[in-house]
Structure formats: structure tokens, C-alpha cells
Amino acid sequence: MNKKKGILLAGGLGTRFRPITYSVNKHFLPIYKKPMFFYPLSVLMLSGVEEVIIVSDSNFLKIFKKII
Questions:
Q1: What is the pLDDT of residue 14?
Q2: pLDDT band per the 50, 70, 90 thresholds, residue 64
Q3: Nearest-angstrom CA–CA distance, 42 and 24
Q4: What local confidence, expressed as pLDDT, does residue 27 receive?
Q5: Which secondary-structure segment (H or E) carries 66?
Q6: H or E segment at 42?
Q7: What's the number of CA atoms in the CB half-sphere (13 Å) around residue 48?
Q8: Which of the residues 18, 49, 62, 66 could staple to 6 if both were Cys, CB 3.0 to 4.6 A apart?
Q9: How many CB atoms lie within 10 A of CB 55?
């Protein structure tokens, strides 16, 4: 049986959120006490996805790896 795979898109510069996004990736901004990227991640998990690929800036991939 094949594993379900999903893609979490976490790219972009966050120009609409500036000046906040000069120091923080927009996907780490809190929305209702959780970072923004947790919401699409939870949808993938609830749908049975077992392997997640994160597409982001190379500087922030290190942070994503620590969290997930």
C-alpha cells in the first residue's frame, strides 16, 4: 500500500505583512495561539497524509525541521 503524500507550501516573502515579516516568516505568525502553517498541516494530517513535503525558503526550512 502506498503512503499518502502532501505538500505544504510555505514560501513567499510576506510583503503584505511588513514590517513584521522582516524578522519572522509569515507562516510562523500566530493565528489563534498557533503558527499559521499548523492549520494546513492539520488538514493534511486529518486526511491521512503520512509524508509531508515543505516548500519554503532555505533559511526557514531549518526552523520547520525543528518544529515538525
A1: 67
A2: low
A3: 21
A4: 74
A5: helix 58-67
A6: helix 38-46
A7: 3
A8: 49
A9: 10
SS3 11: coil
Rounded to whole angstroms, the Cα distance separating 16 from 26 reads 10
Q: Which of 40, 60, 58, 57 is nearest to 49 (CA)?
A: 40
Q: Is the pLDDT of residue 66 over 80?
A: no
Residues 18 and 6 sit within 8 Å (Cβ to Cβ):
no
Q: What would the pLDDT profile of 1-57 be if each residue is shown by its tens digit?
A: 678 888 887 776 667 767 766 667 777 777 788 877 788 888 888 999 988 888 877
Rounded distance between C-alpha atoms, residue 20 and residue 30, angstroms: 12
Measured CA to CA, the distance from residue 48 to residue 11 in angstroms comes to 23
